[in-house]
Amino acid sequence: MDKTIVKIKSTNESSYPIIYGEGLINNAFDFIKQYTKANKFLVVTNETVMPLYGSKLKKDNVEFLILPDGEVYKTMQTLNKIIDKALEVKLERKDAIIALGGGVIGDMSGFASAVYQRGIDFIQIPTTLLAQVDSSVGGKVAVNHPSGKNMIGAFYQPKLVLTDTSTLNTLDERQFKTGMSEVVKYAFIEKTCNANQIYNFMDFLKKNKELIILKDHQILAKLIKICCELKSAVVNQDEKDKGLRAILNFGHTYAHAIEKITDYKKYTHGEAVSIGMKMIFDFALKINSISKEYYKEAIDLINDYGLITRLDFMPDENAFYNAMLSDKKIENSQIKLIIPKSRQEVKIEAVFDKKLLLEGIL
Ligand SMILES: NC(=O)c1ccc[n+]([C@@H]2O[C@H](COP(=O)([O-])OP(=O)(O)OC[C@H]3O[C@@H](n4cnc5c(N)ncnc54)[C@H](O)[C@@H]3O)[C@@H](O)[C@H]2O)c1
Questions:
Q1: H helix count then E strand count, the chain
Q2: CATH superfamily for domain 177-359
Q3: Taking the domains of the chain in order of start, what are their residue ranges?
Q4: For atom 14 of ligand 1, which residue has the closest CA?
Q5: How do the pLDDT tens digits run along the chain, 362 residues long?
Q6: Ligand 1 atom closest to 167 (CA)
Q7: Ligand 1 centroid to 126 CA: how many Å?
Q8: Which residues line ligand 1 (CB under 6 A)?
Q9: Are strands 16-21 and 160-164 parallel, antiparallel or unpaired?
C-alpha cells in the first residue's frame, strides 16, 4: 500500500496528514483511529456514493446520513439535516463526522463539524478527483446562499484526509475532467506557490498524459500528492485567504461569473474553470504579460486533457461583468485577477478596464 503524509501547519490547529494510496478505504478505521479519540462516528454521504463505498465504513459505532446528490442541496437546510442527525444519534463533542464524497459533501460536513457543539473532529474521505486535489485540503468549509456560492462558512481543518485513488475508478469522464481542470491549474501557478520543492508540474502533466487519462493509480497518487503539496504550501503561508491564497483562484474570476450567469446548471465547476483559464490566458497575451510561446504551450496542455475552453453561447456583456463584480473576492469594487506572468508563474493585479476584461470572454 502506497501512502505519503503531508503536514499542513495552520495558525491555531495542529498539523494534519493527507494520506493517499490505492485501497485505503478498505482499512479506513485503522488510519482514522490514529487521529481522533472519537467513540462514535457520523458518516455524511450521498445517494450516489453510499452504494459504492458506504459498506466499507459500516461498523457498530458508525451512523450514516445519506443526502440527496447535487450542488443544489449545498444549503443551510441540508446543514440543518446534518445537525439534526448528529443530535438524533447523540454525537458528543469528542466524536467525529466523516465526509464520504465529493466537494459538496466535504464542504457541508466540514461546516457542520465546525458548528456542531462548537466544533467536533472532522475526517475527510474525498471520492472525486476535484475533492482529492483541492476541496479536501485547506479547511474552507461552507454552504451556498441564494445570493451566491459558499457565502456561509468557516475555516475548519480536518483531523485527517484519507484519499483512496481507487474511488476514482467509478467516477465518470465528465467528473474526472472537472478534477483535471483544477490539476492543470496547479501547473500554471506552481512557481508562485513557493513550495519547498520544484515539481515542473507542466512537464509532469505533458509526459504522463496517457497514464493519467488511463487512471494509472501510481501516477494518480503522485499527481494528487503534488497538487496537495502545492496547495498546502499556499495555505501554510495564508490560511485565512488574506493574500497569496488568491492564486488558487487562477481562472476562477471568470469561472465564477460563468457559473453564476448559467445558474450553476450548465457547466460543472471544473468546466467553468477551464474556460476561465483560457480567458485569462487570452487576457494575458493581449496585455503582453506572457510570450506567444508560453500561451501556446498552456492552451495545448488544457486541450491535451480534453478540457473545454469556450462558452457555447454569447453571454450578455453587462450580465457577465456584474457577475464578476459579485464574486466574493471583490474588494472595494475592484476586480482582482490572477494573471499569468511567465511559465508556471502568476501575479495578482486589480483590473479596472471593463472593456479589456470582457474582450476575452467571446
Ligand atoms: N473547500 C474548498 O476549498 C473547495 C475547493 C474547490 C471546490 N469546492 C467545492 O466543491 C464542490 C464541487 O466538488 P465536486 O466536483 O467533487 O462535486 P460533487 O461533490 O457534486 O461530486 C460530483 C459528482 O460525483 C459523484 N461522485 C462522488 N464521488 C464519486 C465516485 N467515487 N464515483 C462516482 N461518482 C462519484 C457525486 O455524487 C456527484 O454526483 C463545489 O461545491 C465547490 O464549491 C470547495
A1: 14, 11
A2: Dehydroquinate synthase-like - alpha domain (1.20.1090.10)
A3: 5-171, 177-359
A4: 103
A5: 555 555 656 555 568 889 989 999 999 999 999 999 999 999 999 999 999 999 999 999 999 999 999 999 999 999 999 999 999 999 999 999 999 999 999 999 999 999 999 999 999 999 999 999 999 998 999 999 887 788 999 999 999 999 999 999 999 999 999 999 999 999 999 999 999 999 999 999 999 999 999 999 999 999 999 999 999 999 888 877 788 999 999 999 999 999 999 988 899 999 999 999 999 999 999 999 999 999 999 999 999 999 999 999 989 999 999 888 877 666 666 788 999 999 999 999 988 788 888 877 76
A6: 31
A7: 8
A8: 46, 48-49, 52, 69, 71, 74, 101-105, 107, 127-128, 130-131, 134-135, 138, 140, 149-150, 167, 170-171, 175, 178, 269
A9: parallel
CA 198 to chain CA centroid, nearest Å: 22
Q: Using CB atoms within 10 Å of the CB of residue 198, give its burial: 0 to 12 exposed, 13 to 18 middle, 19+ buried.
A: exposed
3-state helix, strand, coil in the chain (%, to 5): 50, 20, 30
**The C-alpha cell of 276 is what?**
476561465
Cell triple for residue 157? 481543518
Centroid of ligand 1 to alpha carbon of 118 (angstroms): 26
What pTM was estimated for this model as a whole?
A: 0.94
Give me ligand 1 centre to Cα 269, in Å: 9
| Rounded distance from Cα 47 to ligand 1 centre (Å) | 13
Classify domain 5-171 at the CATH topology level. Rossmann fold (3.40.50)
- Written as nine digits, the cell of 22 is 490505492
